[in-house]
Design brief:
With 179 residues, the protein is an all-alpha fold. The chain has two domains: 86 residues; 63 residues.
């Protein structure tokens, strides 16, 4: 072997040592590129399995919620209270499915970019707070003003967080055009 060949640390698939795709490996670290390659792909595999499990769970929850809604409407004497209760339960489950779909979206973004993106987590938090507000307001006994104030403040914080993340992402993206 020549000396130039000894200097290269090539991971399987031609990704190049620790330098990443298209970058030369870092000098001084030998033989670690292969295990990192394997760990990255194992992480991707686990992430895909988690994403698939979340999609299956979301589908089961959605079908179950719709079935329960139809069952309540068909099996009981229809009254305003039964329809409102069944609709509230269905809305709660649909919002939970929306949260799961947003988490799956985050998993997909993580797989594509290999970095964690904050915006989907903020959206999940916002939907969760809205879900809690709807659940609290649907109960017969209304909560106190401090509870509602806290929930409304949480919505405001999540919205401000979304605005901040969008502005910082736009400022960091050199391809973005605008002020």
């Amino acid at each position: 072997m020549d000396e130039a060949a000894d200097e290269r640390v090539e991971a399987p698939g031609g990704l190049g040592g620790l330098g990443g795709p298209g970058r030369p490996p870092r000098p001084g670290i030998r033989g670690i590129g292969g295990p990192i390659f394997v760990l990255e792909h194992a992480q991707d595999l686990v992430t895909v399995v988690v994403g698939l499990a979340l999609v299956i769970l979301a589908a089961i929850l959605l079908v179950s919620g719709i079935a329960d809604f139809v069952h309540v409407l068909l099996s009981t004497r229809i009254s305003d209270k039964s329809v409102v209760a069944a609709a509230t339960t269905l809305l709660d489950e649909v919002l939970l499915v929306l949260i799961l779909v947003e988490v799956v979206h985050t998993v997909v973004l993580s797989l594509r970019s290999h970095r964690l993106v904050a915006q989907p987590f903020i959206i999940v938090g916002l939907v969760a707070v809205i879900r809690k507000i709807l659940f609290v307001l649907s109960e017969e006994k209304l909560p106190g003003a401090p509870v509602l104030a806290l929930l409304i403040a949480m919505v405001a914080v999540f919205i401000l967080g979304l605005i901040a993340v969008n502005r910082f992402d736009r400022a960091e993206d050199p391809d973005s055009a605008g002020p």
